[in-house]
Design goal:
Mean pLDDT: 90
Structural class: alpha/beta
Helix content: 25-40%
Distance between the termini: 44 Å
Number of helices: 10
Strand content: 15-25%
Low-confidence stretches: none
Largest sheet: 9 strands, mixed
Shape: globular
Length: about 280
């Protein structure tokens, strides 16, 4: 049985060195930043990696910190992937998934807190002294135990009202190994199944369920304890483990994601202006 992971790049590593038929694999290293692009093209690729067809982009950093200027290599790497996957125009809905009360699960809500929501002011940009703005809406969905509603139900209702050209969903992920915890961003156009990384899968969020482009973004913040204890015959009670510096990881990675989303969607605004808003 393969270790639990939400990362396509780890699935690729776990099945061995040979790239399966139906899978395209590219890797680019730029300084301390490595970008891996995996495309699953057909059913054979789906079966090999256990993931739906689509594009899975992963950016890995040796060390991650919140960006301080527009030349930050980590920021530029993530922005370039958003630019590749997002439609060029139309309203974008940014949705933070997860429970903000639980730090390893707070990535989505914390990221949304830093997203520049503009849908209500796009016709007032001149009055505000701003250049033309793209329409962006933002929402934190909470979790089923807080709201009594599946995340997909909330997002479907919002999409029916505002009809976005794309939805960006942000959620914490699970990793199969420690080296990528808090130092990896995965962006995919295949949607997401919330809670799958911790064995609590909810209804899937994707193009089929929302009838629009869905870009899912995640950072691994937990690892299954069984992945840390591989000794033969050892029985490990099911539990998830998170780094002791998870507070700073969530702070830095949510800032990286929110600034990447802002700068990808608001091409007419500078880093310093956006940075000054939050």
């Amino acid at each position: 049985m393969l270790p639990r992971t939400d990362l396509a790049v780890e699935r690729r590593e776990l099945i061995g060195e040979k790239i399966p038929d139906g899978v395209r694999f590219d890797e680019i290293t730029d300084g301390e930043t490595k970008t891996t692009k995996i495309e699953i093209k057909n059913e054979n690729g789906e079966k090999a990696l256990g993931k739906p067809k689509g594009r899975y982009y992963t950016v890995e950093f040796k060390n991650c910190a919140a960006p301080t200027d527009e030349n930050d290599p980590q920021l530029k790497a993530v922005i370039s992937l958003f630019d590749e996957l997002l439609p060029e125009d139309g309203t974008v809905l940014v949705a933070g998934l997860g429970n903000e009360q639980i730090t390893p699960d707070a990535l989505g809500p914390r990221t949304v807190n830093g997203v520049f929501a503009t849908r209500h002011i796009t016709d007032k940009s001149d009055q505000l002294g701003l250049p033309a703005l793209r329409q962006v809406a933002a929402v934190s969905t909470g979790v089923l135990g807080q709201t009594g509603m599946e995340t997909v139900e909330i997002l479907k209702a919002v999409c029916e009202k505002i009809k976005p050209s794309a939805v960006i969903v942000i959620d914490a992920l699970a990793s199969a190994g420690t080296k990528r915890l808090g130092r990896t961003v995965q962006i995919t156009d295949t949607g997401i199944c919330p809670g799958s990384g911790v064995g609590n899968s909810r209804a899937r969020i994707d193009r089929r369920t929302l009838d629009t482009t869905v870009i899912s973004v995640g950072v691994p913040t937990v690892i299954d304890a069984s992945s840390l204890c591989r000794e033969e015959g050892q029985n490990v009670e099911q539990m998830m483990v998170t780094p002791r510096n998870i507070d700073s990881i969530i702070s830095d990675m949510s800032r990286l994601l929110s600034m990447s989303i802002n700068m990808s969607l608001q091409k007419n605004l500078s880093f310093s202006l956006i940075n000054g808003l939050f």
